[in-house]
Write a sequence for this structure.
């Protein structure tokens, strides 16, 4: 039995689709299918039930799945330990996720962790929730920060952050003088928000906020990057609703105000592999705060 076969088995078990698993592993589907058949022949059991419509795990496959994950994780941990002892470089901890974490939460956490664990190199990447969860399953990430609770049974999660949505306004806008901005007033303004295809969770939160109050938002234009949104607000092209961490983008020509009655909340969860054996990843979790609202 080879580690390559285990990786292929896990990809098919995650996707429950041979074509998607092959695409995920960047290999031809016939070659992937041959590897699965070879693994089944070696074990003497069928791991998957295949029909023209669906793929599912057999009882043997369900039993094999957690052991395969643990075996692959242990092999990768052993490789990391060997390279570290051999002086081939520090252990690499790969962290990634949504902007509220990478820009708002992580800087202080990473600083404290690096102070106590100088032997660990940390790489942080900003990415949306779905790609982050996919990267975690593929072991391209060790820790992920996302806005959705993971559905995969091999992933564990806990909430680390809840933050309100606030209004970003041009400094000379009449609403900027208010301590809090009413929803009905914001609904009258041209709105600049990310496209749903880019940030579906925030897009839906903003739309649900207005529609639950009987308003239809006036979307002027969509911009995906936070600094572009804030620049458009500063130019007087519209207003925006943003997670509170964006208030770190301080400009003299932009002000941030809470929404009257409290704005909608967005949550951030930290996610890791349930049977993680990488000690630096487990240690990193201890540096994260208990669930909080900022």
């Amino acid at each position: 039995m080879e580690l390559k076969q285990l990786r292929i088995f896990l990809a098919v078990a995650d996707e429950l689709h041979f074509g998607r698993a092959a695409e995920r592993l960047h290999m031809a589907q016939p070659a992937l299918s041959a590897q699965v058949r070879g693994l089944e022949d070696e074990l003497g059991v069928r791991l998957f039930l295949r029909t023209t419509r669906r793929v599912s795990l057999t009882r043997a496959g369900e039993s094999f799945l957690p052991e395969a994950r643990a075996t692959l994780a242990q092999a990768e941990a052993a490789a990391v330990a060997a390279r570290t002892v051999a002086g081939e470089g520090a252990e690499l901890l790969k962290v990634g996720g949504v902007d509220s974490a990478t820009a708002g939460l992580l800087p202080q956490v990473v600083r404290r962790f690096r102070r106590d664990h100088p032997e660990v190199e940390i790489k942080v990447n900003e990415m949306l929730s779905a790609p982050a969860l996919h990267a975690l399953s593929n072991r391209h990430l060790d820790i992920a920060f996302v806005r959705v609770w993971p559905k995969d049974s091999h992933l564990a999660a806990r909430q680390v952050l809840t933050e309100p949505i606030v209004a970003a306004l041009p400094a000379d806008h009449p609403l900027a003088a208010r301590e809090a901005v009413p929803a009905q007033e914001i609904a009258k303004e041209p709105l600049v928000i990310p496209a749903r295809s880019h940030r579906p969770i925030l897009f839906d939160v903003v739309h649900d906020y207005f529609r639950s109050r009987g308003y239809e938002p006036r979307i002027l234009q969509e911009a995906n990057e936070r600094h572009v949104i804030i620049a458009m607000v500063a130019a007087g092209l519209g207003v925006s609703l943003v997670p509170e961490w964006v208030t770190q983008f301080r400009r003299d020509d932009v002000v941030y105000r809470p929404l009257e009655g409290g704005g909608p909340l967005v949550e951030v969860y930290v996610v890791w592999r349930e049977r993680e054996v990488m000690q630096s990843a487990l240690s990193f979790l201890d540096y994260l705060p208990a669930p909080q609202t900022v």
